[in-house]
Design a protein that fits this description.
Layout lengths: L24 E10 L2 E6 L6 E5 L20 E10 L4 E5 L5 H28 L3 H16 L2 H9 L9 H14 L5 E11 L4 H13 L9 E8 L2 E8 L2 H21 L2 E9 L1
Parallel strand pairs: 3-5
Antiparallel strand pairs: 1-2, 1-4, 2-3, 4-5, 6-8, 6-9, 7-8
């Protein structure tokens, strides 16, 4: 069951848009390959194709385009030039980084999942696709730019959009299962050595102070793990990377104070797990 023709394939923008925008990253399928380029269909825009010139396939020299592309292949491309009135779209692959690909594919999959969730709830409420589009899909797309973002906001009880109560109630149980709280883990390697005679006491005091940075309000945990003197791990877990960064900054303040008050050497090397 499709929610509505306008959102039968994921789109990050309003369903009324028939063409991508300049600079937009799109999911594309290679339809026809020629010696000088290839035509690709845009999965998110039914019936729309773009042309990929051989010069835009790779940053290096391409002797044979078929060494890089094959019919039926799906890829992430970027809109290089656009003339919507004439229906002309030029694509590029060489301006797409691995990070761009990852972000686009993640958002694409998130939209597919969001559409499926709407379909499930629509079936439960016995709502027709057109009704689902009008009462849920269109308002969320307009307010949040994507259906996935809209459903996540609905789950966090953001009141930017008021949906019919029947939909809200039906979504609640489903979204509680689908949108689980995200946790950020930040591991920092700490080297800490006190050179004075009472160094052990200073060490225990400093490590203890670092662990007190745990915050119940932000659900941030801070643990110091012993690796073997003078090496330790500071493990910070929280729901927001900003909270993790703040906790680490406070830990460095404690270490700087310990270095000033006592004879010690330290270094920190953060790494995201």
């Amino acid at each position: 069951m499709a929610v509505a023709p306008a959102v039968s394939t994921p789109q990050a923008s309003a369903p009324s848009r028939n063409y991508p925008e300049m600079g937009e990253f799109v999911i594309a399928t290679v339809k026809k390959i020629m010696p000088y380029g290839a035509f690709l269909s845009l999965d998110e825009y039914p019936g729309v194709e773009g042309f990929l010139h051989i010069s835009q396939v790779s940053s290096g020299w391409v002797r044979n385009i078929r060494e890089h592309l094959r019919e039926g292949q799906k890829t992430v491309a970027k809109v290089h030039t656009l003339d919507a009135q004439k229906g002309l779209i030029d694509l590029t692959l060489k301006q797409v980084t691995e990070a761009d690909k990852r972000r686009k594919l993640e958002s694409f999959q998130a939209e597919k999942k969001a559409i499926k969730l709407v379909e499930i709830v629509a079936t439960k409420l016995k709502k027709a696709p057109a009704v689902a589009a009008k009462e849920v899909v269109e308002p969320l797309l307009k307010a949040y730019g994507s259906l996935a973002a809209g459903l996540e906001a609905l789950h966090t009880e953001d009141d930017k959009v008021k949906l019919p109560e029947a939909w809200v109630a039906a979504f609640k149980e489903l979204l509680d299962k689908e949108f689980k709280p995200k946790r950020i883990e930040l591991r920092t390697k700490l080297t800490l050595k006190f050179n004075s005679g009472d160094g052990v006491a200073h060490l225990r005091k400093t490590l203890s102070e670092i662990e007190t940075l745990a915050d119940d309000k932000t659900k941030t945990t801070v643990q110091v793990k012993y690796l073997g003197a003078p090496n330790y791990y500071i493990d910070i877990e929280t729901g927001d990377f900003r909270n993790a960064s703040k906790a680490l900054e406070k830990a460095e303040v404690i270490l700087a104070k310990a270095s000033k008050d006592a004879d010690c050497d330290y270094s920190v090397e953060p790494e995201k797990r």
